[in-house]
Amino acid sequence: MYHIKADKRSERSAALIYRGLLECLKSKPFDLISISDLQRASSVARTTFYRCFDNISDVLMWKCDMCFFEVLGAYNPQRFPNEIELARHYFSYWITHSDILELLIRINRQDIIYACHMKNAKILQKRFGNAPKHGNYFIAIRTGFTISVLTTWLSSGRKENADELVDIIQEQLVGLVVALEK
Fold first, then answer.
1. Are residues 49 and 80 in the same domain?
2. Are both 82 and 35 inside the same structural domain?
3. CA–CA separation, 167 vs 165, rounded Å?
């Protein structure tokens, strides 16, 4: 678990540790990186690391969480009048911020992507209420769906733009509805 205080010093330390981790990953596989490696690469003391994080995976969880908080936190029902506009915003964000997702896929930690999305989607649900019947399923289905689209987009070479991804989603949803009606 990470525990970054909401102050500039803590946030700066966390960012330095994350950049240190990226530096370490240039020369070592993720599972061979130690706290000492991070210390050297980030110039952050061991005590600072443990004040912010419990382990190295928490660094990735924090960074991914911050990105999902940023993209989903921008949601406002007046700004995005429907799910299609929210999806367009969502995919536009990830087109320019995909580094953390690519890293997590490369080290086979898609579980972090899913967990961060679920956490931040639930924050949205609490903030705006109006959760549909079976709200947890609503969030889980959309999380699984969007994460699958993102990971497929990344593994396919990032060819599509946000509008094309939204078109693909709409096409697939129409196909699902037709299949369900049979």
1. no
2. no
3. 5
- 162 in Cβ contact with 92 (< 8 Å): yes
In tens, the pLDDT along 82-141 reads: 778 888 989 999 999 999 999 999 999 999 999 999 888 887 777 666 666 777 788 888
Rounded Cα–Cα distance for residues 160 and 50 (Å):
40
**3: in domain:** no
Considering the domain architecture, whether residues 25 and 67 belong to the same structural domain is answered as no
Number of domains the chain contains: 2
pTM: 0.86
Domain that holds residue 37: 8-54
- Alpha-carbon distances of 3 from 15, 36, 68, 99, rounded to whole Å: 13, 20, 17, 22
- Residue 44 · residue 38 · CB < 8 Å: yes
Query: Rg of the chain's alpha carbons, rounded to an integer?
Result: 18
